[in-house]
Amino acid sequence: MDQIPLYVTGLAAEAEGQLLSALDDLPIHKVDAEPRALAEPGKPAIAVVGLNGDPEAAFRSVTGLAAGGVRVAVVGDSKDADLILRAMRSGAREFVVAGEPERLEVAVRALVRPGMARTTSTVTAFFPAKGGMGATTIAANAAAAAAARGARACLVDLELQLGDALSLLDLQSAYTVSDVLANLRRLDRELLDSSVAKHRAGMSVLAQGERLDEADKIDAAAIGQLVGFLRQHYGHVLLDGLHGFDELSLAALDAADRVVLLVTQEVPAVRNAQRAVGIFRKLGYEDSKLLLVLNRYQPRSNVTREVITETVGLPVAATVANDFPLLANAVGRGATLAEVGPRAAITRDVEALASLLGAEDDSGATRRSWWRRLLGGAHGSR
Known about the structure:
This protein has about 375 residues and is an alpha/beta fold. Helix content is about 40%, strand content about 20%.
C-alpha cells in the first residue's frame, strides 16, 4: 500500500504524539498542509480535525477537506448529538470524544483500511494462577470454539522460549512471532493467512516455535505492537503463555480487553489467584476486565465455588468440567475437544466460555455506522 498523507490539526501535542505512535505500523506519513489536493481516486488522504479553539473554523476545514475527497475524523469535547450531526453533515466519517486515544486510533484505522479496523475485535489474555493449570488447553479450545462460531480467531503463544501451543495441536510453522513483528508494514490479511499456521478446526496459531535465538529481541513494546496489529485482522485474539508479571506479560495484559484468571480447586492455586487479583487492581484494572474461570471443576470438592469466590474476591464466572481421559485423547491426536468429544460436558463448557468472551461471527458481519456506534454506545472500557 502507498504511503497515505495524514493531516492533524486542533489536537493537543500529547494527543497527536500518542496517535502517531499508535499508528506506527500503518503506511501513513504526516503532512503539515491540508492534504485535500493530494486526495486522488484510489489514493486516499486522511485528516484528524479537533474542535478546540475555533469550532466554526474547524467545521469549515472539515467541509473543505471532505469536499476534496479526504477522509476526515472529528475530535470533539463531548458526545453531543447536535455536534455529531453537524460533523456528519460537514462530511466527517468518524467522530471521537477527546481524551479517548484508543477510539481515535480505531477511527483512523477505519479510515486508512476500511473494513479492517479493530472496532469489533476482542483480545483475551489467559492468566493461570499457577503452573499446570491447563491454560493452553483452555485457550486453544476456546479459539477453536470461536472459529466454529464463524469468528476469525488467532491463538498467540507468548511463551516465547518453551511454548507448547503448536505441539498441543500437532502443528508446525516456520512463520513466527518475530517474523510478524519484522513485517508489520507489509503484511496484509491474505499474506498473514498464508503464513501463519492454521488448525483444521479453523483457528490460526502464532508462536515463536523453534526460533528461540530471536525471542530475546522481543520486548514489551513489541508485544503491544503485535496485539494491535492482530486486532486489525482477527475478530478474536487469544493470548496464551503468560506467567507472572514480567514486562512481556504485563504488556499483553494491558493490551487485552479481558483477562481470564484460571484457577483450580487446589488451595495454592486459589491463594495465588487471590494475590493476582490484588495486583490486577493495583495496576488499575477494573473487575469487569477480569473473568475468574474454574478449570477441572469437581462439584464434590471441599473447595467449593463459594469458597473460591470469597477467597479470591471475584465471582466464579464459568466452570470447565474435569475430564482427563478426553483431554488425553485430544492431546494425543493434536485434536480439539470438539473433534473427539463434541457432546462432552467439558466441550460444552469451553464453548460456553468462548461465548462469554464475546466470540461471534465476524466473517460477514455488518459494521454499525460511526453515528450509530456513538449514539447507541460503543464497546465498553477495559
